[in-house]
Write a structure and sequence with these properties.
The protein is of the alpha/beta class. The protein has twelve helices and nine strands. Bound molecules: phosphoric acid mono(formamide)ester (CP) and norvaline (NVA). The site of phosphoric acid mono(formamide)ester has 8 residues, from helix 2.
Length: about 325
């Protein structure tokens, strides 16, 4: 499949920037890319990844994913760009739009992404912000769907901080007809605007997010048990306080036993054994953590190919 005419510029700052049909189409393409049935050809198109925070999966999957599709990529580290310091994000976006066909950015503040997107002539992709991590959730939905054969009607329990990953998961569940059951300590709940948006997206389906305080209540009978770090990047100073506040929110084999017997365990990584997971959970027989990590490459490839018009049926 080759690149023909690029579609109108579309950004991907939030999972909700895609419609339910578009999410399905990207997931279809991602699985077809994984199995080798689909090989988008970007014909030398290029991506610049701006990083204000560290990364393993995001950087490697964007870089190698672009190369596998016959494109190029370049990653810029925090000290190299100085987004908002050395140069305003708007000017960075205007310049990069003259060099590259896609900009991806991992930012401290979501406002930086919005500023980049407002000024860019090319698609801007959220590679993690303080508000959302939508590329992660595309990969995760792909992993869940590949495991269960469907997403609709599944109960997905998220245990922990109502953070960027949880927010994108809430929107993703609403879009695909799954139900998010999230348990967070008081003060760390999913933001109200995300709950409201996910509730709107769920529409008549009834799959509105369900909020709990006790992990056991969220996990009971769930098909998926998902967690993320207690202290996200940039919250290092709060790590000890959060370790106290999140005590009892660890995923371990005992908690997994409350889920459906066929449930899977998920984590976006990096993980901290002894904190949000007990030792050995990543390689637990119910873990699909490394499928998630692998799918970052396929889901992002499908997304980029879609944004650039290299998958005609999905664009
Ligand atoms: N899950 C994830 O985004 O990993 P990195 O921070 O290593 O990119
Ligand atoms: N919530 C985590 C996700 C890391 C991929 C963070 O923002 O650091």
């Amino acid at each position: 499949m080759t690149l023909t005419e690029a579609p109108p510029r579309r950004h991907f700052l939030s999972l909700a920037d895609l419609s339910p049909d578009e999410v399905r189409a990207v997931l279809d393409a991602a699985t077809a890319i994984r199995t080798g049935e689909l090989r988008p050809d970007l014909n030398g198109r290029s991506l610049v990844l701006l990083l204000e925070k560290p990364s393993l999966r995001t950087r490697v999957s964007f870089e190698l994913g672009m190369r596998k599709m016959g494109g190029h990529s370049l990653s810029m580290l925090p000290q190299e760009v100085g987004l908002g310091g050395r140069e305003p994000p708007e000017d960075v976006a205007r310049v990069l739009s003259r060099y590259a066909d896609v900009i991806a950015a991992r930012v401290n503040s979501h406002d930086t992404l919005v500023a980049l997107a407002n000024a860019a002539d090319v698609p801007v992709i959220n590679a993690l912000s303080d508000i959302e991590h939508p590329c992660q959730i595309l990969a995760d939905l792909q992993a869940i769907r590949e495991h269960f054969g469907t997403l609709e009607g599944l109960a997905i329990a998220f245990i922990g901080d109502g953070n960027n990953v949880a927010a994108s998961l809430a929107l993703g569940c609403a879009l695909v007809g799954a139900t998010l059951r999230i348990a967070s300590p008081v003060g760390y709940e999913l933001p109200g605007n995300i709950v409201a948006q996910a509730t709107r997206l769920a529409g008549q389906e009834g799959n509105v997010p369900q909020l709990f305080v006790k992990p056991e209540d969220a996990v009971e009978g769930a098909d998926v048990v998902y967690t993320d770090v207690w202290a996200s990047m940039g919250q290092e100073a709060e790590r000890e306080q959060r370790a106290r506040d999140f005590r009892g929110y660890q995923i371990n084999p005992h908690l997994m036993e409350l889920a459906d017997p066929k449930a899977v365990f998920m984590h976006d990584l990096p993980a901290h054994e002894g904190e949000e997971i007990s030792e050995g959970m990543l390689t637990h027989p119910q873990s699909i953590v490394f499928n998630q990590a692998e799918n970052r490459m396929h889901a992002q490839a499908a997304l980029i190919a879609t944004l650039l018009g290299a998958i005609p049926s999905a664009s």
